[in-house]
Amino acid sequence: MSDNVVDLPIPGTANRKDTAAEAVAGTKAGRVKRRLTSRWATLAALIIAVVWTIPTFGILLSSFRPEELIRTTGWWTIFQNPGLTLDNYRDVLFSSSASSPQLGSYFVNSLAIAIPATLFPLVLAAMAAYAFAWIKFKWAGALFVFIFALQIVPIQMALIPLLQMFTSILQPIQAQIHDVIPLIPEQTYVQVWIAHTLFALPLVIFLLHNFISEIPSEVIEAAKVDGASASQVFFRIVLPLSVPAIASIAIFQFIWVWNDLLVALVFSGGTADVAPLTQRLAELSGNRGQDWHRLTAGAFVSLVVPLIVFFGLQRYFVRGLLAGATKG
């Protein structure tokens, strides 16, 4: 007798599998997947990536070229005029002259601004989005529409009123704290944190509300039936399920704050103690723009941290973008 056993299909099983596959293919997720993986979509993505990368590649090559070659020839002549050097990076990182300030300490300032200015709006917006999505209270809809409408207010219109409020309220408090504890400087990052948090909250609340409201109501109701309070539901159910969306928004908020110059100039007071990296990058070209070649090296120095943040949270970023688009 043969030891080989032939598996015979169970009647009706193949039909059920085909029907299930057709059902999945016919859902919204299947349609989105087919469109994003088609040949034309792939070709368009490659073209966009190449066009987007060419200027960045040119700046990268220019950052390794000497000043005279940058001024007289283009980066595309790299094979005719190689002359690669690290002088631009040496001037940017280690020089401490007025026209080429050292960037090391300003890295710390940018991190001290960007990290809290990313965490504060995410924490506040997550709680607000949960309240708007799953807690019933009076005027919830009108209040949510009002917060959403705040996105259309230009930042430039709020800079002067907010600065006046900080001048009349925060600065006297900081001065009193400095008198009691001299180690704490009078000029701190507090007003920059508050400004970035206020400007980010409307959009972050809106995005997180859209994600949190899509959590199945059965999960929330089951937790409440088991005796979980609103805070327990938030910390044990809503937050873990919202990690992809929170990480995606954190990437955008961190990069926005890291690359910001306007808010930093207005609310940091221009002092070196709290000046971010972008403020010093604007000074690299000198008083008359005669040293603009250093900006190529300074630009890539400032890119290091955002790239680390993006690649570190990339898996959450992709999941967060596709979470709302793949529901059937």
Write structural notes for this entry.
The chain contains 17 helices and no strands. With 328 residues, it is mainly α. The chain has 2 domains: 12-85, no CATH class; 103-323, MetI-like fold. Helix 3 (39-63) crosses helix 15 (294-302) and helix 6 runs parallel beside helix 9 (190-212).
List the helices and strands and how they pair.
Layout: H1 13-25, H2 28-36, H3 39-63, H4 67-72, H5 87-94, H6 104-134, H7 140-149, H8 155-180, H9 190-212, H10 217-225, H11 230-241, H12 243-258, H13 262-267, H14 277-281, H15 294-302, H16 304-312, H17 314-323
Helix pairs in contact: 3-15, 5-15, 6-9, 6-12, 7-9, 9-12, 12-17
Keywords:
0% strand; 17 helices; MetI-like fold; 2 domains; mainly alpha; disordered C terminus; 328 residues
Largest sheet entry: none
What is the beta-strand fraction?
under 5%
What is the 3D form?
globular
How many domain units? 2
Short description:
The chain is mostly helical. Helix content is 69%, strand content 0%.
